[in-house]
Design brief:
Length: about 200
């Protein structure tokens, strides 16, 4: 009889939630609600970064969607009061790297080179220059494009970009300088500035 009572008591203890399980669940719920509340604020920057990384609107939307899903499902991994923007950009960077690795193994389905660019009405010189710059950015290497987007467009500090990309800050500065030089060459800015001197 004593053995049955002991076993019954042990079974009752196992079914009762422990205080640490409840606290961990509360912490996870708090983290999830914090991420869900702050995530919409970072969506425009995530969209810009995704578009720059992929060069395709549809793929960028998919990357943002995957990033948001990953952030919400793993909200408990966010270290509060950490920099959520850097955490989200790191998630996106890693997802994109994984996607690129997968794409290298699979053949491409179709090329978009044959589709003509839409024409713009006259008087849209700024738009034309922006399109020229975007097209030139698409010709940069992925490493140079990432650094250029993070620092020049998103305004991220060198140290934060270096941490996000997993490289030293000096490498980030070097890549940024090379990216800017290459972008000037592609857009013809370098030849214009030499002829005006």
């Amino acid at each position: 009889m004593a053995t049955i009572a002991c076993t019954l008591t042990d079974a009752m203890l196992l079914t009762l939630p422990s205080r640490t399980d409840s606290d961990a669940a509360d912490t996870r719920a708090d983290a999830a609600s914090d991420v869900a509340r702050e995530l919409p604020r970072h969506l425009p920057a995530l969209r810009r970064y995704a578009r720059a990384l992929t060069g395709d609107i549809t793929a960028a939307d998919d990357l943002v969607q995957d990033c948001c899903e990953r952030a919400l499902s793993r909200a408990h991994l966010w270290q509060r009061p950490g920099n959520m923007r850097a955490w989200l950009f790191t998630i996106m960077h890693n997802l994109n790297a994984n996607n690129r690795r997968r794409a290298a193994v699979r053949p491409r389905l179709a090329s978009m080179d044959g589709i003509p660019e839409p024409s713009w009405p006259a008087g849209q010189l700024e738009r034309l220059a922006a399109n020229q710059t975007l097209a030139a950015m698409g010709k940069l290497s992925a490493d140079h494009r990432e650094v250029l987007i993070l620092i020049a467009i998103e305004g991220m500090p060198y140290a934060e970009a270096a941490e996000l990309l997993g490289v030293p800050a000096g490498t980030v500065m070097s890549r940024l300088s090379r990216a800017r030089d290459h972008l000037r060459q592609l857009t013809g800015e370098e030849s214009r500035s030499r002829t005006s001197k």
